[in-house]
Amino acid sequence: MELLFLILIISILFLIFFTKNKPNIVSEKSYYILGTLINLKVFGKESEKAIDEAIERLIDIDNKMSAFKESSEISKINKNAGIALQTVSNETFSLIDKSISYSELSEGAFDPTIRPLVSLWGIGTKSERVPTEIEINDNLKLVNYRDIILNKDDNSIGLKKQNQSIDLGGIAKGYAADEVVNIFLKHGIKSAIIDLGGNIFVLGNKNNESFWNVGIQNPFMPRGEHIGILSLKDKSIVTSGNYERFFIKDNKAFHHIIDPKTGYPSSSNVISATIISDNSIDGDGLSTGVYIMGLDKALDLIESIKGVDAIFITNDKNVFVTSGIRHNFKLSNTEFIYNNN
Ligand code: ADP
Ligand code: MG
């Protein structure tokens, strides 16, 4: 009898030990938020809870910052362009403020007031088309990040001219990814892969052992075909590419990253710009900007920023990798030429 009791106690203790230290509780969920497919894969005891909180946070960011939602703070600023400033939340205020610093850094290539041109082209929407020269010139006049008025005293933001409008599509996903990382860390998550429509953040190690492997998309091939692999932990990997969203008219492809100097989709020699950084907000802001700037300026800019690296692919299949990330990247597709300068 006593032996039976002892066995029972030992079994219960074993059970408690194993459920508490279950090595790999993993949760994976997909959603459609921020106009994109979100996939979160999280390891750890609180993975479910962490994902639920992250999703709530992403919906909140979308509601505040989407230019497509009538009631968002961005829409309110846009509706009041040339009329009045609009009080916004701290986070919207700081994201716009940060966007302006990326405009300055990229010499105006990244411009959050790009929306009139983005709407005119309508790429990825039912109304996508090649606009006339006149339409492009009229809308170009409205694009200028220097026309954003920021009033720190009451957190209000405005635009100087009527019909100007803000689009944070080039940076909001980066900010959102950082918010998800913070939530995961708060829940003690040590391993996760956060994918916000191709904006990737790899948290910790994969299965607590090896680095995460992230494929760099081949810009000439369908999604999922890679030119090589990046092996990393605790980094954001954000790519701006011509293959993300585009339409074809008269055998010519028109993609969704607009050069604020010309009003046309960027035609620099860079067709894919991947930024590797600690914070995804930096990766997102920079990837859109350097894509437009062209290879030489882009390489110089990224090499000058400490802790930020890049992989650029040019239209003639050359791959350029900045100095800090060369050990982590392996080019596997032999059609591409590796440049090490
Ligand atoms: P994606 O959103 O496809 O991952 P990006 O981060 O490069 O890629 O952002 C592209 C989006 O940014 C466009 O869909 C548009 O909303 C916006 N955008 C386009 N051109 C510019 C630009 N020159 N500056 C800032 N934002 C831009
Ligand atoms: Mg971007």
Topology diagram in text:
Layout: H1 2-20, E1 26-33, E2 36-43, H2 47-65, H3 73-79, E3 86-87, H4 90-105, H5 115-121, H6 133-140, E4 148-151, E5 156-159, H7 172-186, E6 191-196, E7 199-203, E8 212-217, E9 226-232, E10 235-241, E11 246-249, E12 252-255, E13 270-277, H8 280-293, H9 295-304, E14 309-314, E15 318-321, E16 329-331, E17 337-339
Parallel strand pairs: 15-17
Antiparallel strand pairs: 1-2, 2-6, 3-5, 4-5, 6-7, 7-10, 8-9, 9-16, 10-13, 11-12, 13-14, 14-15
Helix pairs in contact: 2-7, 7-8, 8-9
The structure holds adenosine-5'-diphosphate and magnesium ion.
Order of helical and strand elements: HEEHHEHHHEEHEEEEEEEEHHEEEE
Bound molecules: adenosine-5'-diphosphate, magnesium ion
Average pLDDT, to the nearest integer?
93
Count of structural domains = 2
Strand line-up of the largest beta sheet: 1-2-6-7-10-13-14-15-17
**CATH topology assignment of the largest domain:** T-fold
Shape assignment: globular
- C-alpha termini separation: 77 Å
CATH architecture of the largest domain: Roll
Binned, the helix content reads 25-40%
Q: What's the main sheet like?
A: 9 strands, mixed
DSSP strand content = 25-35%
CATH class of the largest domain: Alpha Beta
Q: Which regions are unreliable across 5 or more consecutive residues at pLDDT < 50?
A: none
Keywords: FAD, Flavoprotein, Magnesium, Metal-binding, Transferase
Family: Belongs to the ApbE family.
Pfam family, one: ApbE
Catalytic activity: L-threonyl-[protein] + FAD = FMN-L-threonyl-[protein] + AMP + H(+)
